[in-house]
């Protein structure tokens, strides 16, 4: 597969998947997600790879979630596509849980929205000390839900998970380390060395035992995996993308104003 939105490299038994959309702070589209899923599967299947690293280009952002222009779609014209989120089959986080090899997230800046929950779905999360992290969905009408939310409660407990998801505040990486969502925080200049140190430690261990451990953690998460985002939307808000609520959130973000969700309560 020829990648356009990501970079893929293997060196010293470490496969690095890098989101390469720096002009939009490494926000993704559906095509980006497909490329990330393909690269992760390729790295897992490659016997020359022992550890996988997920990161973003530059020093400003790991990933700020979905590209709002893509999420909004083109709202003019009868044949215009609807929100990119509507038909997105987002399985990447499930794939991270099921992956049999250790996955390290290298957080090199903003990790917002999907960038944040992708980071905490990785086995190990290492962040630069300038990184800012948190969710964004309720602020922009992006209906992230299902097991990607529930897993946060598995990691940090109900109260903190509800605070993070339901209020969509911004947090420094050190706070998330204190909460248990991040494993290490280092200066940006030391980030690569820190990631390499953790990766090398994994590479010195039994790969079969690591695989068995990862499957054990996956099985523990089993009860929440039945409901993904599409399932929850279909059950509780099947007409969400037709009401205009998501479009108001996306438009407000792009127009740099506060959204007005009062008509949708």
Description:
- It is a single chain.
- This protein is α/β, with parallel strands linked by helices and 265 residues long.
- Mean pLDDT is 91; it is low at 74-81.
- The protein has twelve helices and ten strands.
- It is globular.
- Helices cover 42% and strands 16% of the residues.
- The chain has a single domain (6-190, 207-224), classed as Alpha-Beta Complex (2-enoyl-CoA Hydratase, Chain A, domain 1), CATH 3.90.226.
- The strands form two sheets. A six-stranded mixed sheet has the order 1-2-3-5-7-10, with helices on both faces.
CATH topology annotation: 2-enoyl-CoA Hydratase, Chain A, domain 1
Strand adjacency order, main sheet: 1-2-3-5-7-10
What share of residues are in beta strands? Answer: 15-25%
Order of helices and strands: EEHEEHHEEHEEHHHEHEHHHH
N- to C-terminal distance: 44 Å
Q: What's the pLDDT, averaged over the residues?
A: 91
What would CATH call the architecture?
Alpha-Beta Complex
Please summarize the sheet with the most strands.
6 strands, mixed
Oligomeric state? single chain
Secondary structure layout plus pairing:
Layout: E1 6-11, E2 14-19, H1 30-45, E3 51-56, E4 61-63, H2 68-72, H3 92-98, E5 103-107, E6 110-112, H4 114-121, E7 124-128, E8 132-134, H5 137-140, H6 147-156, H7 158-167, E9 171-172, H8 173-179, E10 184-186, H9 191-203, H10 207-220, H11 229-236, H12 245-254
Parallel strand pairs: 2-3, 3-5, 4-6, 5-7, 6-8, 7-10
Antiparallel strand pairs: 1-2, 8-9
